Amino acid sequence: GAVVSQHPSWVICKSGTSVKIECRSLDFQATTMFWYRQFPKQSLMLMATSNEGSKATYEQGVEKDKFLINHASLTLSTLTVTSAHPEDSSFYICSASSPFTRLDTSYEQYFGPGTRLTVT
Amino acid sequence: AQKVTQAQTEISVVEKEDVTLDCVYETRDTTYYLFWYKQPPSGELVFLIRRNSFDEQNEISGRYSWNFQKSTSSFNFTITASQVVDSAVYFCALSEASFGNEKLTFGTGTRLTIIP
Known about the structure:
The structure holds two protein chains of two kinds. By secondary structure, chain A is mainly beta. Chain A has strands at about 5, 10-15, 20-25, 30-40, 45-50, 55-60, 65-75, 75-80, 90-95, 110, 115-120.
């Protein structure tokens, strides 16, 4: 149980275009979803936290107008990279958590497989 | 602010050797969770363990074992009889333990290479 999917798994886009990445919890309702970014050979850095039905909370230094996050339902969150530039090329990973999972797994985040974005 | 330090950037060992990955953390919270994740070349994070701050018992799972010492703020991970499939980047992470604040702070990771 507790499976999270991401779509697409990889995407190549041209500079200036927008790209949408979907994160879905397949077998549980995710009240909170997190978006992380990972540059090559570096750690995961949290970009934002989104709770279903409310605005996302962005980490310091993350441009909210550039990285639009929508958590419209308990099973879907989307990250849209607007006007993408080559420096936005990275590995984007989402995770989902819920207080309604089994007690022994509460507060645990379930990670998606990641989306590799390349902006040319 | 929370912080996780993995001082070992890269480690290489010969297959069947034991290896320990170090993790030191900082937090002002009295209740928190510690995690270890494995990231193979495919990129997908593989959950290995979660430890509550009140549970200082060491844990063993097959060839994996974890040593949690609150007194030194360390949560080290040992692989015994290493195998080539253990080659990956390993991340230690820390989170608060209150609903809505489960965001993870990751260490910089340790790249482990097992030489056949």
